[in-house]
Specification:
alpha+beta; Gyrase A, domain 2; PTS EIIB type-1 domain-containing protein; PTS_IIB_1; kinase; protein-N(PI)-phosphohistidine-sugar phosphotransferase activity
Amino acid sequence: MTTAPGHAFADQVLRHVGGAVNVVRLTHCLARLRFVLTDDTIADDDALQQMPEVAIVVRQGGQLQLALKVSVPLAYAAVRHRLEEGTAPGSSR
C-alpha cells in the first residue's frame, strides 16, 4: 500500500473523469470509489488505470468505479474535499 492519497491524487482523478462538473455523485464502498458522471464517455479509463493508486477501473451499474491500492476512505475524503471547495480541475465555481 502506498502513502495516503491527497489533493494531487484528487486533482488527477477529477481531471481524468472529465472534471468536477462531470461528477453527479461520488460514493464509496470498502475497496472502490464510485462515480456517477454526467457524461461517462469523456472519462479517460486508460489514464485512470495508469495511476499508481488505482488497481483497476470498472464500469458497472451506470458507475465508473476505481478499485484502489490506497485507503478508500482517505481517497474519498480527498476527492470530496476538492469537489466541495470548488478548486478541482473542471470546477465551475
